[in-house]
Amino acid sequence: xxxxxxxxxxxxxxxxxxxxxxxxxxxxxxxxxxxxxxxxxxxxxxxxxxxxxxxxxxxxxxxxxxxxxxxxxxxxxxxxxxxxxxxxxxxxxxxxxxxxxxxxxxxxxxxxxxxxxxxxxxxxxxxxxxxxxxxxxxxxxxxxxxxxxxxxxxxxxxxxxxxxxxxxxxxxxxxxxxxxxxxxxxxxxxxxxxxxxxxxxxxxxxxxxxxxxxxxxxxxxxxxxxxxxxxxxxxxxxxxxxxxxxxxxxxxxxxxxxxxxxxxxxxxxxxxxxxxxxxxxxxxxxxxxxxxxxxxxxxxxxxxxxxxxxxxxxxxxxxxxxxxxxxxxxxxxxxxxxxxxxxxxxxxxxxxxxxxxxxxxxxxxxxxxxxxxxxxxxxxxxxxxxxxxxxxxxxxxxxxxxxxxxxxxxxxxxxxxxxxxxxxxxxxxxxxxxxxxxxxxxxxxxxxxxxxxxxxxxxxxxxxxxxxxxxxxxxxxxxxxxxxxxxxxxxxxxx
Length: 495
Description:
Layout: E1 18-21, E2 24-27, H1 39-63, E3 75-76, E4 83-86, E5 90-96, E6 111-120, E7 123-130, E8 170-178, E9 183-194, E10 197-202, E11 207-212, E12 228-232, E13 253-258, E14 265-269, E15 277-281, E16 291-298, E17 322-328, H2 339-345, E18 354-360, H3 362-365, E19 369-374, E20 384-390, E21 397-404, E22 415-420, E23 426-430, E24 437-441, E25 447-453, E26 460-465, E27 472-476, E28 481-486
Antiparallel strand pairs: 1-2, 3-4, 4-25, 5-28, 6-7, 7-8, 8-9, 10-11, 11-12, 13-14, 14-15, 15-16, 16-17, 17-21, 18-19, 19-20, 20-21, 22-23, 23-24, 24-25, 26-27, 27-28
């Protein structure tokens, strides 16, 4: 869709040469140079370059900070006032909330977590969450006062509301995008009737696990919420029958990541006192057949707190791998929202608002690992990045590392959704009340900035790469736009 149709677009003075072609923005230069780092960061940059990457790693261990060493260059002001990008990068708006999809439904609002799946013939299926709560009915896919359309099978709507009066309108939609033609071929509703589908994660068997983050975990409407739902990546327009995966636990969910070697599903919880869990399925790839839920704890230790907030009893070290283990949980489909409390009683490690999560393969990051972001972790409560190294010899154990805690708002502010590029770079969506960015981190810990929201103060969400690494898909959650970003992404693992 042309950017001219974007609502609430701020008027900005045209700067530098600029070319538009079918909705694509090509940055050819600008007379405005945007300085991305502070003077202190610049000086640290110079010193760190002199010491080399080995010296940088030692610096990170001692200071718990990182500096902007790797860079795609300064961000250039977007004349259309949507996304500022480095020279050579451009974006295309693929979808806007409220527009009509090809199945006749409206594009739902509040787009959040996403993943892109190869479906052949140069096409990807981008499955997109919509973080719509029970009160967000005007942002749902239905037109008639959010009533379920008469031609829609009500069995496909997970929660029709109390007595069928008002359905829940959270769920997912799917975009079929042609990488070669750089165009959307189809767009359709793929899950409906769920509540505040925030993030989730892709599976190795070609499905998207969509996670609910309900605001109200105590009240039953038509159905209880706080579950994970599985949505297949398919080119055919259809709505997935909603099956809550109850043995994976009921809690205020955020994201998941699957270890393809074992089929184990790791999960985050968006609470200030949340825990990390994992689901060991009875049969890999068959999550509906049930399994065992466990919580993460530091090995041979009592209760630990990973948040590093001032006044905490313990301090979680940066760049040190600590041995961990997993404790079994029971009564996981709890109606009381008490799963984390029972986990902590068993010694589970506490995290502050664990949100985005992604699997890092040995081919990209050097060693199989699970990354996750904690939005309010760290001494200044601006964000942490953890990574877990599963043991290949003993599934009961592994190692945990606090990979990144900048404690510098110039580098990272409230880490949320994350993804890993085929070249091993970690990309982080910020969710703050100020200016939001997509930040990057190399496997060795160097930080850089890829994009800035020039439209408004809304968060970036759902960043994910096409399997070939040529396109980064992302959302600006409000007013609800999905974009494809292309450019000279670095190839190969830089670790």
